Amino acid sequence: MRQNERRHSKLLMVTDNPMGLQPFADYLTSRGLSVMVVNQGEDALIHARRHDIDLILVDVLFPGFDGYDICRRLKDSPETSAIPVIFMSGMTEPAEKLKGFDVGGVDYITRPFQDEEAFARIATHVRIRGLQKRLQDQNEQLQQEILERERIAEALREGEERFRMLSEATFEGVIVHDKGVILDVNPVMKDLFGY
């Protein structure tokens, strides 16, 4: 992931120990990522809705409702369901990691962090999220183009129908041609020529 791509990427770090994760947040910032840190689950949900977040890093163990609950609530909301969630924990048991994937997490990094490895995982998911956003933008643009073409096609059909009605109602012969090739004639012209 290039530096200029990272510069616009926003991460939300959700932890009950902001001071303990500050060195890691500083490291991510030094690598070009914008990092916001919140220490309550409800704040995470609010920030995820209000800001254009590209990735959420969330502690597994959390007072109140845990990281799994935070992820579940993020994934249940249409506004935040596409934001990738990476769990952070000192727990290395496979069952805990699998639980994170079951609730919608995309990765699980363990403490103590290996900064380069953690950054590589984060950068990969941020890049995937960026590609998803671009694809979504292109899809929306294509949908707009399709609607515009359908509107134009409908206007063309209406215009052709009005022309047909006018040419059939006139008392004069009408010929539509393209460089001498006859494309259409009205009933009066058919009667005049007999075919």
General description of the model:
56% of the residues lie in helices and 17% in strands. It has 195 residues and is an alpha/beta fold. The strands form 2 sheets. It has a 5-stranded parallel sheet with strand order 2-1-3-4-5, sandwiched between helices. Strands 6-7 form a two-stranded antiparallel ribbon. It is rod-shaped, with a radius of gyration of 30 Å. The model has no long low-confidence stretch (mean pLDDT 89).
Summary keywords:
195 residues, alpha/beta, five-stranded parallel sheet, two-stranded antiparallel ribbon, 7 strands
| Beta strand % | 15-25%
Strand-and-helix sequence, N→C?
A: HEHEHEHEHEHEEH
In whole angstroms, the N-to-C terminal distance is 70 Å
Q: How many beta-strand runs?
A: 7
* Widest beta sheet: strand line-up: 2-1-3-4-5
> How would a textbook summarize the main sheet?
5 strands, parallel
- Kindly name the structural category: alpha/beta
